[in-house]
Amino acid sequence: MTRLQRLATALKPHAIGAALALIYLVVLVRTAPTLGYARDEGFYFHASTDYARWFDLLLHDRRAALTRGAIDAAWATNHEHPALMKSLFGLSWLFLHEKWRWISSEGLSFRLPGMIMGALGLWVTFLFGHRAHSTRVGLVAAVSLAFMPRIFYHAHLDCFDVPVMTMWVVVLYAYWRSLGGGLGWAIATGVAWGLALETKHNAWFVPFLVVTHFVLTRAGDLRRDTARGNLPLPLALVSMAVLGPIIFVALWPWMWFDTLSTPGHAPGRFQEYAGFHLNHAYYNMEWMGYNWFHPPFPRLYSWGMVLFTVPGITLLLLVIGLALMLPTMVRESTGVLGWLPIKRLRAWADAYKSDDPRGTWMLVFLGFMVPMAPWLSRNTPIFGGTKHWFPAYPFLALLAGVGFARVAALLEELLRDRVRRAGVVTAALGVLVVLPPIWQSAHSHPFGLSNYTPIAGGAPGAADMGLNRQFWGFTTGSLAPWFNEHAPPNAGVYIHDTTFEAWNMLQRDGRLRQDLRPVWQVGEGEFAIVHHELHMNEVDYQIWTAYQSPATAHVLTYDGVPIVSVYRNPRGR
Amino acid sequence: MTVVLATAEGLSSAAAVEQSPPAHPRWRFAALLVPLVAVVELLSQAVIQARVPKDSHWRAAAAYLRTARRPGDLVTSAPLWTDPLARHYFAELIPLADAARPDATRYRRALVATIRGGAHPDLRGWRETAHRDFGPITVRTLDNPAPATVRYDLIEHLHPPDAEAFRAAGDNPIPCEWRPGSFVPGGGLGQGALLPGSRFHCSPEGWNYIGVTIIEDMEHRGRRCIWSHPIQGGAMITRFRDVPMGTVFHGHHGIAYEAERGDDLGNQGGPVELRVLVDGAEAGRSIHRDGEGWKGFDIDTRAWANTTRQLTIEVRAEAPGMRHYCYEGDVR
Question: Shortest CB distance from A133 goes to which of B18, B44, B49?
């Protein structure tokens, strides 16, 4: 094999991963114009713009930009979340929209980095599946992940949930590669974790996963080495411990001052950041017809939402994949048994020990389970719906990919006499298992948070059961055509759960008439809207009180389920 | 102790890959389950989308309802989540009093646009006498087995000269001033029931008024009722004159959702007492405690039946903080 051939072979999986990522990115970009802007996106438009202006100052007057005054003025905005994605959103807006005019839609320029992170997530998931098992596993995993309807929705946004999912899989992939030897992947793990920390706070759970994995899969070595007076540590973990905090602080100018304490010895900015997330307010979330707003939360919420929002075929393949890999995972973890003072168990563990020192499938299993673990506690807030455990989904998809590979092999065997051409059965099955997710995602758009799979009976079945209809007020974007057509000039609209920034971005993007004004009292304008969530019913009744009428002028629906009601003020024009 | 930086060197570099054992024939057939499930999921998705009622179905149901509805009928829909659609398509058939009704006991008949086999909780025990299908929508006609005849509804008479209101914090009750037709300010999540445009204004405190508003009850339903937030060390009083008395005073009371559910730590508020007086004599009382939601009560008024009297409602609470209290009642 020539050097060129070797290079081509090495690059082939990257070419496939890149192609998947590029196709996904194109789909996201093409579908974005019909998706309204979410509350949190509005907050990040604001923060990213402030950060971008600071970067601009840094380019033009470095000394002025690096003063505490300039840094605090720019980075105080939304300082409860780290800076990486907001910096990228802002830089994308500054250069691709404001300076170079490559992207005409201002909203898209903010969203693009988030979309790229979603696409990158597919690329790395594919690589993981390809290297850990086979190309078919990587392909099915990546496509299944891409077209989980909730992932598809969130991948459009200038938010952190899909980016941090990607960063988890990047960190674990790098860590897994580092276990194969070499300093490069260990350093990459540390860098990736630093970037993950800088993306969203759930990355702080990664070390627990890595340590648990290392202990489970290397317990035998630990025992042997500690007996010799050595303590074996994975190089990647050392790299994470060193590089992670450095990158976390280095990329977040807000943390450059008063990091751990103020000059007056008060708790510093890091404690403020940690405190915000450790003591986060509880928001409302509907589950089984009840509005949950404080702990204890329902124990089955997270698993129930996985059941009702991840396509059924993906879940079936996950179950098959888990069942198939369970013996492998046990064999990868037999070293733990060596710690027990039972000779028989130790002998059994030695006999069945896995020959994979990287403990691949235990890592994938932990990658799936650890992000779900916080919801074992009934005190963990549930207001984020599914997005807070997104880091589990690439690993869920990888296990589903393994299930697919085995089923494909069985069907190839079964149909060997009927279908002679190799791979046809696998390809056909591959298409069949990704079709439901693709259809469901396509159909979910632009109502991603209202979508439920056929297991729940779709959106109507979910409404019957009393599952959350939406959050963040983004569905106002779907009303733009109605308002453009029906609102009188300069009409005021009470916009309920939509932020001013989100409404304003619809206008800046040319999707909504410029003359329409958001108003802040229900009785003030010509129209009032209500985003249907159980606990928001009170806004309906406020409008009834103000208008003295319960009649809706328009109801935006998804599969026949009310999403937003529009009221016309009888006292208006 | 020496710290060893461990990589896989010296261990093994081979990845453990799933080893497929030779498949038993039955597993090969079992594998067919996967494509079957995929097909079932695709078909289920198609069925879900196909069963969604179309605009034309709702309009056809509306046209039928316009002809079938008699005065005093209740027009509604089931399941409850279809309510915004009913208020859109049947807008002129659902007045505010019906949409935010206290219960359905006063209606003789209900016409219910039903999808997905839904049932309306207000209409349990009612007898179906007819139904008409409009695609996936069935308009069911239900008869109330025991409809009540309402002689006097407090909400409809909460204005001068039929009613007057007082804030009684000391020996001398202070009359509340009637202010009609004001702008309704505010709105938004967590703001609760809004100050109505017409009300008895009782003090500069924004919450201290008596007027008809709509609260969200503990089941998140809208209830049209008379706001009467209790005050410290006294009572909020509403008097209705020339009330044609019947055999029973039928009513409900509740506290707006966010005030009744309590805070994030589970702290709730104290009870609120409602007294009903006929010509100054107590006819009965009902106490509302957190967790009871939209609570119904009946007070026996047979002693005054078929006479015209002054009816007084007094509302008290020992701990009136966050008691976003509201009641309604009628004479039957």
Answer: B18
